[in-house]
Amino acid sequence: MVYTIDDRQLLKLWIAVSCLGHVNEIRDALARSELLTRAQVHLTAFVLDLQPLPCGLAGSATAEDI
Questions:
Q1: Rounded to two decimals, what is the model's pTM?
Q2: Rounded CA gap, 3 and 57, in Å?
Q3: Tens of pLDDT along 2-46?
Q4: Is residue 6 exposed (0-12), middle (13-18) or buried (19+ Cβ within 10 Å)?
Q5: Which of 2, 24, 27, 42 could lock 58 by a disulfide, CB 3.0 to 4.6 Å apart?
Q6: Phi, psi of 37 (to 5 degrees)
Q7: Residue 32: its pLDDT value, please?
Q8: Residue among 9, 11, 38 nearest 23 (CA)
Q9: Distance of CA 9 to the CA centre of its chain
Q10: Where would I find the beta strands (DSSP E) of 1-66?
Q11: Can you tell me the mean pLDDT for 55-60?
């Protein structure tokens, strides 16, 4: 299945990836846990906001179109 993604969703994904990128730098277990929870919240919101592309358009897009 193909999904559409807007700028708001990409921002959520970028924030989650950024949080995960900083996890190893944090020594405090509580702070690390909070950062992982924040990443999980943003990833969950990203996935729940995905909207499927209408069936007629899903097969017509190629890598060159994107």
A1: 0.69
A2: 10
A3: 888 889 899 989 989 998 998 889 999 999 999 999 999 989 989
A4: exposed
A5: 2
A6: -65, -40
A7: 94
A8: 38
A9: 7
A10: 3-4, 51-52
A11: 61
